[in-house]
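So, could you explain this one?
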Amino acid sequence: MPKSTSQRQLSTADERRRTVLQTAVSAFADRGYFGTRTADVAQRAGISQAYVYRLFPDKEALFVAVVEHCFARIRESLGDGAAAAKGSSAQEVLDAMGNAYAELISDRDLLLLQLHAQCAAAAEPAVREVVRSGYARLVEYVRGTSGAPEADVQRFFAVGMLCHLVVALDAHEVDAPWARTLSDGLRHY
């Protein structure tokens, strides 16, 4: 018997897991690790809280998976930037990766999730570990791909952190000396 087009298609656990991860990014971006309940994520994903727990054993495991997901997006973005570099000098590669990252953090959910992860890392060992390992992978990728000296790699990440602050505060839209000082020379999307 042919399937009716109105019949509901069942998703696989992997598809549901991806949906929950993507939904959880915005849920955790809104309220952070400590302010978000698994019930909030379940409601946004249109599934039961019990199903969230079938996919992830607890909120910490879900948050850790969301942070890993975001680090994977960052790495992919940096790779796309490196591939689009106009030349092969270390600075040209860093500039292209920086531009790709600036575009990526225009996704406010991803930006806020990163900020919340860094805050939660101060108090939660499992979150601290996933943030540490995420940055370790990114630093090694940027160093290896760009061939830049340590000081330039450090500056690349420092400017990225400054971009977080400027974008989170919308400082680039404030007409004041402090905001111009922080925003000068940074790309915004």
About this structure: The CA atoms of residues 68 and 133 lie 9 Å apart. The chain has nine helices and no strands. The radius of gyration is 19 Å.
